[in-house]
Design brief:
The two termini are 43 Å apart. The protein has helices at 3-7, 23-35, 80-89, 97-108, 121-143, 169-179, 218-229, 237-243, 258-263, 265-275, 287-296, 329-334, 341-353, 385-402, 412-419, 425-428, 447-451, 455-478, and strands at 13-16, 43-46, 147-150, 156-161, 185-189, 192-196, 201-204, 320-324, 360-364, 371-374, 377-380, 406-410, 433-434, 440-444. The protein is globular and about 85 Å long. The chain folds into 4 domains: 3-138, no CATH class; 144-211, no CATH class; 218-275, no CATH class; 283-478, Uracil-DNA Glycosylase, subunit E, CATH 3.40.470. It has 18 helices and 14 strands.
């Protein structure tokens, strides 16, 4: 009997999902249906009817009636790009998302390169769903505000209210667990709640806005801090509303200050220009203006060494930023980043990993070459933590202009420039570190380190470096 016969001629199958964000459940059922040769128009994907079912478990009510895969059914084909996009798209609130996912998965069995066709309407729609979810997650990271509540035993508990557009609550719980690992906190939403006691994560039912606390004493300090860092010279009201939509204002203690700060921005910007201090210096509005500012900078002793400033280069909207420590001797002479031996080695590994250097924005944490003279030679000298932190202002301006989705930090100094603290490359490599603007930071060694190694040690570190670049390429394909 054929698969169509086993499935029943013309039969229709309803798959009841236990939760609206259960991608793994959908994936298992979808694979079985593909192997049973059940076409998309004969499958309905049914979400829980009540919001309270968000954290319900158990098997799907319709799974027992589903056809079994053929014994000789081939493996289901799904590219890494599809899986990465599908995981995000599955969290979208669009009721047709699971049907769309199955339709694309069904087509992938006959069109393995389908996901490379960005003009395909179904692929494009899937990407739009995933992009909306990523944006919602970014807003959650940025706009969740915890308020302190004192428990009966006198301990502090921090509670936040947030209204996500999509089913991102459980998917983003890990972000807050890592960032606030030592706090006891809860995030309440209309779709469910999560609670962290410092050791265990618990899930709870949906909540109401009145279940969350109002202002606490800390919020006066937060408002004072926000007012102090508000930079009127960079104010663009349209861009601000795009990044901080009004719907989030009611949960942000600093939002009450925004109308007044906007109204006085022009006068404050003029005062900043007159003052001319570094902390109040307006941010560059273009990469060309940034390069001019770097060339004129004398904020740290390195700039007094007689070397030229080396700004970054690459597409102004590159998805990948590659960040080194500082220019070397050859970079100082050429006025371009990563053109010396370390840069040539980096090019080889990027090509092997399938990453086009020309599509990346390449720059350094410190913009001038720091060296010690040995006869006619200029030997690299590592910048101090203070020098890295001083130059961080320029790097932040660079990132704000390029807005990369992924930053690859080559070495501990580059990582410090982004995180503001020293990290171990060995411990930080191999995983994404979330940055405040929503980008991902990946840390690996600097290729100059490989040049200093020989034999087995170099082979071992070279393999790890290649593995790190492969991970970054996979993330670029998924982004």
């Amino acid at each position: 009997m054929t698969a169509m016969g086993k499935a029943g001629f013309g039969a229709h199958y309803a798959v009841h999902l236990p939760a609206p964000d259960d991608f793994e459940f959908w994936r298992a059922r979808a694979r079985a249906l593909v192997q049973a040769e059940v076409p998309p128009d004969r499958v309905s994907w049914v979400e829980p009817g009540a919001t309270g079912d968000l954290f319900a478990g158990g098997a799907a009510r319709g799974s027992a009636r589903l056809p079994q895969p053929l014994a000789d059914a081939p493996p289901v084909r799904a590219s890494q790009r599809f899986l990465a996009i599908a995981r995000s798209a599955a969290l979208n609130r669009d009721p047709a998302r699971f049907a769309l996912l199955y339709q694309v998965l069904w087509r992938l069995q006959r069109q393995p390169r389908l996901m490379e066709d960005s003009a395909d309407p179904e692929v494009r729609r899937l990407e739009q769903l995933a992009k909306a979810v990523r944006r919602d997650a970014h807003k959650m990271h940025a706009f969740v505000r915890f308020r302190e509540v004192e428990e009966a035993d006198g301990t502090a508990h921090f509670v936040a209210w947030f209204e996500p557009d999509h089913h991102i609550l459980r998917a983003e719980a890990g972000f807050f667990m890592r960032r606030f690992a030592n706090m006891r906190w809860s995030i309440l939403t209309p779709r469910g709640s999560i609670h962290w006691d410092g050791e265990t994560m618990r899930e709870g039912p949906p909540a109401r806005r009145e279940d969350a606390p109002g202002d606490d004493p800390v919020e006066a300090l937060w408002r004072s801090y926000y007012a102090s860092i508000f930079n009127p010279a960079r104010l663009k009201v349209g861009a601000m509303l795009s990044e901080m939509p009004r719907k989030y204002w009611k949960n942000l203690p600093e939002a009450a200050l925004i109308p007044g700060l906007v109204a006085t921005a022009q006068a404050r910007a003029a005062a900043m220009v007159a003052a001319g201090t570094r902390s109040e210096r307006p941010r560059p509005s273009s990469l060309a203006e940034l390069a001019q500012g770097i060339a004129a900078c004398r904020d740290c002793p390195i700039a007094a060494c007689g070397t030229r400033a080396v700004a970054g280069e690459g597409p102004p909207r590159a998805r990948l930023m590659i960040l080194g420590e500082q220019p070397g001797d050859q970079e100082d002479i050429a006025g371009r980043p990563f053109v010396g031996p370390a840069g040539q080695l980096l090019d080889q590994y990027l090509e092997a990993a399938g990453i086009a250097r020309g599509a990346a924005y390449v720059t350094n944490a410190v913009k001038h070459f720091k060296f010690v003279a040995r006869g006619r030679q200029r030997l690299h000298q590592s910048p101090t933590a203070k020098e890295i932190d001083t130059c961080r202002w320029w790097l932040e301006a660079e990132r704000a202009l390029v807005r990369p989705r992924i930053v690859l930090a080559l070495g501990a100094s580059a990582a410090r420039a982004l995180l503001g603290k020293t990290v171990s490359v060995t411990r930080a490599r191999g995983r994404a570190i979330a940055l405040e603007d929503g980008a991902e930071l990946w840390v690996t060694l600097h290729p100059s380190y490989l040049l200093r190694l020989e034999g087995e040690a170099r082979a071992r570190q070279a393999a790890l470096f290649a593995q790190d670049l492969a991970l970054v390429r996979a993330r670029l394909e998924a982004a």
